[in-house]
DNA sequence: AAAATTTGACCGGG
DNA sequence: CCCGGTCAAATTTT
């Protein structure tokens, strides 16, 4: 529950966090540069995904530092209308890169349903600490019809659990390793597997299974959401990277003055790193819209 | 053995 | 009655 700088207060922690993220971006870019000549496809793609995630975090951090949180609700989307569900689109680079889906919190899947016009099923998750801490946060994840690398994630409710605010030491350690893949001090598990909660989730193998976030979905064979509970590879210390923690929610709420009945905010965020490489013009798209 | 996922049944709103 | 969301038992994974 520490406050992130919403509005003003600053964030020193965030500054350093931003620096770290940026440093990561730099090293990733270098590596990408290096790999560019050798094997272009796979490896590079994976890296791009990580890069995208890192940049995403950086942007978030920067925004919260600047006190310009939800400054983007361009087209008039009643951001404060009535719903409080927060949704975002997350794109993964490859099947192995589900970092974007990993919002740093542990979720437990409790259901999956086929949705009317959707091609892929929607997976339902609730906070793992629902019973132990009464955390009522939930989220739904669904692959976009067209692009298997894109996932729509909708969050409901604020997190009341502590994990949301305090990442474990292990998570931090992991994050560090992630940043410096060269020295694997102890185990190295960086990219490959780790599926559940504490690391980068990975996708199922190849066939189609069921649900969401997975691996190389580009072929469209992977499933959208799969077996994995996202975990928190990133230090939440900095702040809620991809998922709205209770604190962030409050922040957003107050800034949006989402009144109404509020309980659900919708923040639709679309990150397309792909374009970053294909169209130098628009690296990312941030959209906030209320919906639900 | 414990914890998480899979799935179909069940529920409530439109 | 259809559809989306949740429950819960069976099953799988750790």
TrEMBL record:
Family, per the entry?
Answer: Belongs to the WRKY group III family.
Q: Which SUPFAM superfamilies match?
A: WRKY DNA-binding domain (SSF118290)
Chain positions covered by the region annotation Disordered: 180-209
Show where the WRKY domain sits.
96-159
Write out the GO cellular component annotations.
Answer: nucleus
Where can this protein be found?
Nucleus
Q: Which UniProt keywords apply?
A: DNA-binding, Nucleus, Transcription, Transcription regulation
What domain of life is recorded for the organism? Eukaryota
**A Gene Ontology biological process annotation?**
response to ozone
Descriptive protein name:
WRKY domain-containing protein
Give any GO molecular function from the UniProt entry.
transcription cis-regulatory region binding
């Amino acid at each position: 529950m520490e406050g992130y700088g919403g509005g003003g207060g600053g964030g020193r922690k965030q500054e350093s966090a931003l620096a770290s993220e940026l440093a990561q971006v730099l090293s990733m870019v270098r590596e990408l540069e290096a790999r560019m000549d050798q094997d272009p496809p796979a490896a590079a793609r994976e890296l791009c995904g990580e890069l995208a995630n890192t940049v995403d975090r950086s942007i978030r951090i920067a925004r919260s530092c600047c006190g310009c949180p939800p400054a983007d609700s361009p087209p008039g989307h009643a951001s404060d209308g009535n719903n409080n569900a927060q949704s975002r689109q997350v794109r993964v680079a490859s099947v192995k890169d589900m970092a974007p889906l990993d919002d740093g919190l542990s979720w437990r899947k409790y259901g999956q349903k086929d949705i009317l016009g959707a091609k892929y099923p929607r997976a339902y998750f609730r906070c793992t600490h629902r019973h132990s801490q009464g955390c009522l946060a939930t989220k739904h994840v669904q692959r976009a019809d067209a692009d298997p690398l894109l996932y729509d994630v909708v969050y409901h409710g604020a997190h009341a659990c502590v994990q949301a605010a305090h990442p474990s030491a292990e998570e931090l350690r992991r994050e560090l390793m992630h940043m410096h893949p060269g020295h694997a001090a102890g185990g190295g598990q960086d990219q490959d597997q780790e599926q559940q909660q504490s690391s980068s989730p990975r996708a199922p193998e190849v066939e189609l299974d069921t649900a969401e976030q997975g691996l190389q979905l580009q072929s469209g064979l992977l499933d959208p959401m799969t077996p994995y509970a996202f975990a928190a590879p990133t230090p939440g210390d900095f702040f809620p990277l991809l998922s709205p923690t209770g604190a962030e929610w409050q922040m957003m709420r107050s800034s949006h003055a989402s009144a109404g009945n509020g309980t659900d905010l919708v923040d639709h965020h679309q990150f397309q790193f792909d374009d970053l490489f294909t169209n130098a013009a628009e690296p990312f798209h941030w959209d906030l819209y209320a919906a639900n």
